[in-house]
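TASK: fixed-backbone design
INPUT:
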């Protein structure tokens, strides 16, 4: 490169300054509100957005909850459709017809916290210290700490603690389920099916024998005739049945 082909340094600076000045756009604003985050309402106009930030807390919507002194990092949403949503991570674009699980939303329509998704609707509701899983919310009561499951497959299940992955062919005991199909409480497991049934009158039905703490098993009642202190006949099966009821109650109470 020869000296004649080099542009003066001063010319280069003037050229870039002129280009930068030509690329600038004059932005107008009528002013803003304290703590409001600004946004462009057009290519050259800055206005307030619906987002505010106060002492490290962010609010989206018209109502900004008051935070106690020293509290920060709180994100809240307000408005007639206020919700906090999160989309399925594997989606690369929004589907034309969203299906259940494509997006989940936490929202508060009436003082209850609800988890909602497409097609299914509300699947979880927290209300006054109680939690409801399913579409039916029982009438509220003065108590708290109740967990209720509703729906056509309503159940409360617990898996074997030693399982590290779900087996391809589950066996009895891999999974236990309490459920209520018809007004009775039933305990179910794979292969065996219902092993315990509690009726509304307190009767307990078992599919197998009862093993007591002393290791003894009782499988059925053997009828025989005895006499009580008045000399009347008393069937042994009734006495055995009463004894069996008492021992079952004691065994169930020990599990609580």
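OUTPUT:
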């Amino acid at each position: 490169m020869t000296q004649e082909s080099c542009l003066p340094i001063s010319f280069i600076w003037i050229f870039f300054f002129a280009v930068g000045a030509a690329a600038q756009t004059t932005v107008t604003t009528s002013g803003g509100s304290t703590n409001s985050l600004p946004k462009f309402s057009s290519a050259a106009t800055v206005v307030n957005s619906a987002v505010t930030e106060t002492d490290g807390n962010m609010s989206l919507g018209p109502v900004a909850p008051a935070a106690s002194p020293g509290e920060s990092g709180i994100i809240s949403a307000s408005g007639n459709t206020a919700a906090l949503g999160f989309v399925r991570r594997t989606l690369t674009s929004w589907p034309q017809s969203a299906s259940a699980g494509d997006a989940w939303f936490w929202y508060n329509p009436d003082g209850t916290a609800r988890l909602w998704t497409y097609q299914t609707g509300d699947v979880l509701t927290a209300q006054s210290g109680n939690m409801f899983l399913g579409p039916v919310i029982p009438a509220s009561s003065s108590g708290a700490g109740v967990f209720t499951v509703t729906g056509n497959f309503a159940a409360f299940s617990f898996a074997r603690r030693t399982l590290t992955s779900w087996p391809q062919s589950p066996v009895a005991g891999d999974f236990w389920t309490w459920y209520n199909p018809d007004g009775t409480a039933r305990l179910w497991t794979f292969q065996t099916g219902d092993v315990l049934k509690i009726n509304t009158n307190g009767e307990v039905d078992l599919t197998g024998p009862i093993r007591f703490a002393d290791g003894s098993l009782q499988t059925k009642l053997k009828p025989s005739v005895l006499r009580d202190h008045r000399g009347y006949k008393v069937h042994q099966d009734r006495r055995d049945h009463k004894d069996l009821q008492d021992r079952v109650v004691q065994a169930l109470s020990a599990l609580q």
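COMMENT: The helical segments are 9-23, 236-255.
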